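QA checklist item 7 of 12: single-chain prediction sanity check.
[x] sequence parsed
[x] length recorded as 196
[x] structure emitted
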Amino acid sequence: TEIYTLSLHDALPISLTLDARMHEILGRGPVSTSEPILSNVPESERERIRKEFHSAVADPTFTKILALRHPVIWPDGSQHHIQTYARIFRDNAGRPQQILGVTWDVTVEVEHTEQLAARVEHERTLLTRLSVATRAAGISAWEFSLSAGQFLWDDNRPKSFGLDDVPIEKFASAFTSIIHPEDRSIMGDTVRQAIA
């Protein structure tokens, strides 16, 4: 994590002289040269970051913590992600005087989030395919709450039941009512034995 301060006057935009640790976070190596802070941010993100930063600095009513997260491209071509939180200090007239900020590498966190999102999307795709397959095969999927004694959801309800318009919370009793009395007791006994 790098903590830094900037002294602001009337001139914008702002260039920074970064210390060795900040250069490492940005993938520039342990050097101390004056470079624009966004020089290795992808062009697709550069304008967004610049606008958010300048808008916050120029707005005399902006007193919140400025949060910026964006990728940076290292010299070897690899993409990393950094997070910055900054506080803008102003004079009595609302003019920006100084910024206190912290910046750190969040590449692992971002990659983990992206992996989880990809996994969720993959599972959603599999469920969609399963739903299509079960519908094509005339298979009905459902979930039943033993404590509540009712169905929680069902999918592809068999039309042969004649219960298409029955709400899910009333489906259990409606389904039971269409079972032959003799089979109804057998089914009840079978279910109780299965869950005992």
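[x] summary fact logged: Residues 97 and 169 are 62 Å apart (CA to CA).
[ ] second reviewer sign-off
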